[in-house]
Design goal:
The protein is an alpha/beta fold. It has helices spanning about 15-25, 25-40, 55-60, 80-95, 105-110, 135-140, 200-210, 215-220, 225-240, 245-250, 255-260, 260-265, 265-270; strands at about 5-10, 45-50, 65-70, 100, 115-120, 125-135, 150-155, 160-165, 170-175, 180-185, 190-195. The chain is globular and about 50 Å long.
């Protein structure tokens, strides 16, 4: 039987349309393409968690797992979208449906379970997070199977999980972000998630950097939009020619990022362990 996956969007309709205009697809749509590339037989259904939609246990029972895509949602704010996302994730937990999430997905799960999110002190982290290190629990956790002692990963976020509620366990961290990966248990459900973006291709990171060009210059991460565009061009080239050692050296990237299989490690582990995650 093919895997039946619920792909959960947390971008608003306007945000989805803006990304489609810039990148061709919304975040949950490119995430679904990644899943189909990883498992060509999987069946994917799309839902939104920010439009007030409610889902029944009967409907959720049709799926083997749920995956939450990233978005600009700010889970430390009090908005209708934030409240809707937390309620939706609460229904996933109550139904006992195993779930996984990247970036905003981790933050949604943390808030839904009773934890907290806060803005980053240093504003946006953009491009790649460096030196992710597993905790003692993380080294033994199936989500991080196959990861080395430390690794880099694609990232793009301006907020982070500040606190996990009871039932949450930190699996990895960096110097700047204490919760880079976590398992969260709430109700009957189990969530695995990461603050970074294992689903993103290098061209998507390049595209996101161009989209945030002015903000990155204002933050002092680059002297001009032209600098960001040149960096992004290198990423585009490395995406199409992953054997370009010169570009990998200039960008400071190794095969944990360049190789698709290694970059997507956490997602693949989630898919492979769906049958025993809630046990």
């Amino acid at each position: 039987m093919p895997l039946r996956l619920l792909m959960v969007a947390s971008e608003t309709p306007d945000q989805q349309e803006a990304r489609r205009k810039r990148s061709g697809m919304a975040s949950h749509e490119t995430y679904a393409e990644t899943l189909r590339e990883m498992d060509g037989d999987c069946v994917i259904e799309h839902h939104s968690c920010v439009d007030g939609t409610s889902v029944s246990n009967e409907l959720l029972g049709r799926f083997d797992g749920a995956i939450f895509a990233g978005s600009p949602i700010q889970m430390h704010e009090d908005t209708s979208e934030v409240r809707s996302a937390a309620r939706y994730m609460g229904l996933i937990f109550d139904a006992g449906l195993p779930s996984f999430g990247s970036c905003a997905g981790l933050q949604i799960a943390a808030v839904a379970a009773g934890g907290a999110v806060k803005p980053r002190d240093a504003e946006m982290e953009a491009g790649f997070t460096r030196g992710v290190v597993a905790s003692d629990a993380g080294r033994a956790h199936p989500m991080l199977q196959g990861r080395p002692g430390a690794w880099d990963a694609p990232t793009m976020h301006s907020a982070m999980v500040d606190r996990l509620a009871a039932g949450g366990e930190v699996l990895a961290s960096t110097t700047d972000v204490p919760i880079e990966a976590a398992e969260i248990r709430s109700g009957r459900g189990v969530f695995w998630g990461v603050q970074y973006h294992p689903e993103l291709a290098l061209w998507e990171i390049a595209d996101a950097l161009r989209g945030q060009s002015d903000a990155l210059v204002d933050q002092g991460l680059a002297r001009s939009p032209e600098v960001i565009d040149r960096y992004s061009q290198h990423l585009d080239s490395l995406d199409t020619s992953p054997d370009r050692r010169d570009l990998a050296w200039q960008l400071g990237l190794d095969f944990e990022v360049i190789d698709k299989g290694r970059r997507r490690r956490e997602i693949q582990n989630f898919l492979q362990h769906l049958g025993d995650i809630t046990s």
